[in-house]
Amino acid sequence: MTTRPTRRALLTAAGGALMLPFLPSLLGRGARAADVAPRRLLVFFVPNGLPDALWRPTTTGAGWASAPITQALDLIRDRAVVISGLRHADDPGGNGHQSSALGCLTGGTPGSSASGMSFDQVIADAIGADTLRPSLNLSAEHDTPCAFGQCGSEEHISWRDFRTASPLETSIRAVFGKVIATGTGWRSDAARASVLDAVRADLKRYTRDASADDAKRLDAYAEGLRSIERRAAFVPASTCPSSVQLPSEDGYQYASDADVRTMLDLLVLGLQCDATRVATFMIGKAGSDRPLSAIGVPLGHHELSHTTPSARHTALGAWTLGHFSYLVQALDAVTDTDGASLLDHTDVLFVSDMGDGSTHSMADVPCVLAGAGAARWAGQHLEFQDRPMADLYLSLMAAHGVDQATFGALGTSSLLDLS
After folding, report:
1. What is the pLDDT of residues 139-191, one digit of tens each?
2. Which of 418, 318, 414, 264 shows the shortest CA–CA distance to 71?
3. d(CA 371, CA 392)
4. Which CATH architecture group holds 42-187+249-399?
5. Mean pLDDT across 345-369
6. What is the CA radius of gyration of the chain?
7. Rounded to whole angstroms, what are the CA distances from 409 to 90, 105, 263, 391, 406?
8. Distance (Å, whole) CA 417 – CA 394
9. Which residues contact 158 (CB under 8 A, 6 or more apart)?
10. Which of 43, 211, 214, 413: disulfide with 280, CB 3.0–4.6 Å?
11. Phi and psi (nearest 5°) for 105?
């Protein structure tokens, strides 16, 4: 008689070396209801806002007319809803970029103790107990020039409380370890040998015992993992093309498009193999002065936000939304255990820490929701009149089983039914 592994056994599959995607055919009947197709949350953050005139669609409802920046959403129009007219709480201290990231997901007044636990962490506490990482927080930028000298809270959007940021990873190598294994990465030459090579026998064993559908999932998972390994230099040098540009051992300062895509692929893999069900990704930090010369913008995002709206703003906005669109499409390309896509069970939120960065305005914050909660309004532009962003967070928390009446400084009622 074949003994089916438990949920905990799958979490530590292959001796703790390799995480696996959901495999319903290998789960006992009692575990299947709880383990098949869980709902996930992924927040994609862009700092410093985007000019409303270049961002907001010019019509509402279905078939909305694109503004210059939102043209970048055309490939995912049918899976996303653009939401305008939402605001964060104002910062009475006028600190702008120095405190805006702190208030972005907490719904609190930036720079005050009202900014407590961020909504992603509220959800992580509710649904993350059965995963390897209750949440995973990544950034494509760290230790880069900041307009205020030594940056602090500008580098974090996920918070456990007013003074405690959730752990943040900026190293592809470290993220690979956290998503795929129980460690924090591999640094010795011997340890850089392919994880897949080390556990090939285990994969064959699981494939032999799995259903045809789950065997296909394992094959697709292994193929995707191998691709990420190559880009992150986790395979022996003899099989890795010499032209591959490797990230540094301890992170990187100027993330290339390839680095960003690798991190996004790791996020998808982390959700697919249930290493985590809650994740955040910062494409940049608030107050950043990292030059964006690769997209024809020689200024840092912070400096650019204080200039007159121009083609440079459009280029930056299209670049960020292009990566967001890539992420949505990558989630949509993964088949979940119920035959739907991974995107169908994931709420993917695109959000910024402010609206107009030039005036530090907290109104008209760029916002797009894709995936599970967006299904009812997919393809539409929903326009609200100065509603709190925290109301949307209440909606997302409710969709993940957290029944809460208020949130942050302004949130008092759910914005949309995202169940």
Report:
1. 988 666 555 555 667 788 999 987 888 988 888 777 776 766 544 444 444 44
2. 318
3. 15
4. 3-Layer(aba) Sandwich (3.40)
5. 94
6. 21
7. 10, 11, 32, 10, 8
8. 10
9. 105, 118, 120, 121, 135, 137, 165, 166, 168, 280
10. 43
11. -100, -10
N- to C-terminal Cα separation, the chain? 40
3-state secondary structure string across the chain: CCCCCCHHHHHCCHHHCCCCCCCHHHCCHHHHHHHCCCCEEEEEEECCCCCHHHHCCCCCEECCCCCCCHHHHHHHHHHEEEEEEEECCCCCCCCHHHCHHHHHCCCCCCCCCCCCCCHHHHHHHHHCCCCCCCCEEEECCCCCCECCCCCCHHHCCCEEECCEECCCECCHHHHHHHHHCCCCCCCCCHHHCCHHHHCHHHHHHHHHHCCHHHHHHHHHHHHHHHHHHHHCCCCCHHHCCCCCCCCCCCCCCCCCHHHHHHHHHHHHHHHHCCCCCEEEEECCCCCECCCEHHHCECCCHHHHHCCCCCHHHHHHHHHHHHHHHHHHHHHHCCECCCCCEHHHHEEEEEEECCCCCCCCCCCCCCEEEEECCCHHHCCEEEEEEEEEHHHHHHHHHHHCCCCCCCECCCECCCCCCCC
Put the strands of the sheet holding 367-371 in their side by side order.
61-62, 380-388, 80-87, 367-371, 346-352, 40-46, 278-282, 136-139
Residue 245, token pair as written in the block: 């540009």
Does the pLDDT value for residue 49 go beyond 50? yes
Q: CB–CB of 146/290 below 8 Å? A: no
Q: Facing residues of 87 across strands? A: 388
Closest CA to 272 of 10, 79, 75, 28: 10
Do 127 and 277 contact (CB within 8 A), yes or no?
Answer: yes
d(CA 355, CA 358): 9
Question: Domain residue spans in the chain?
Answer: 42-187+249-399
Please say if the pLDDT value at position 410 is more than 50. yes
- The pLDDT confidence band at residue 232, using thresholds 50, 70 and 90, is low
Q: Provide the 10 A C-beta neighbour count for residue 213.
A: 13
Is the pTM here over 0.70, yes or no?
yes
